Amino acid sequence: SQTIHQWPATLVQPVGSPLSLECTVEGTSNPNLYWYRQAAGRGLQLLFYSVGIGQISSEVPQNLSASRPQDRQFILSSKKLLLSDSGFYLCAWSTRGDRGQVWRKSNTIYFGEGSWLTVV
Amino acid sequence: DAKTTQPTSMDCAEGRAANLPCNHSTISGNEYVYWYRQIHSQGPQYIIHGLKNNETNEMASLIITEDRKSSTLILPHATLRDTAVYYCIVRVVGNYGQNFVFGPGTRLSVLP
After folding, report:
1. B45 has which bridge partners?
2. What pLDDT shows up at residue A17?
């Protein structure tokens, strides 16, 4: 079965410090990968998605970046954190469609356990 | 984007069925209805999804009206561990499913 791992679970970082959150998926190949952020009491906001190694698309301009160095590894980074970067970060994956489609409308997204980031 | 409307909160007695409604009157013919839940401080958990027909799995049942403008998620025997925020989603925007839009959801409280 497929599993998704995300770490660290909690993180307290000072303003201006770097960030690295890592996510790996097991039990599947060539997944679509996603990073979401959830502010307190809010819905999920898509930050980045990737359909393949080295292929990253950004949904929201910000001081965060993402990388996909391996098929099942997705990393969220920042060179200098802001107070507004605090929140709950979620990695997610989905299967791809048939015949080369990157998505089918019946596909399901599965989420990791999340990482709580507090910037102080 | 199709929008969903869910009650803000609901209570349910432990052991009873929990019926969570969702309105999605602007749903398109080929859009699926998804349900997720999120327990505090955890990632959303997939529950079930469907297109037209009613669906059942080990977690829940999904009842979709014939006109597909609304649906109901049924937890047949709610337990205290089912206390969570439940999200109904009917729209995936874009070619890559990147905008799985989570609204505020329904906060279900299962009471002993």
Report:
1. B37
2. 97
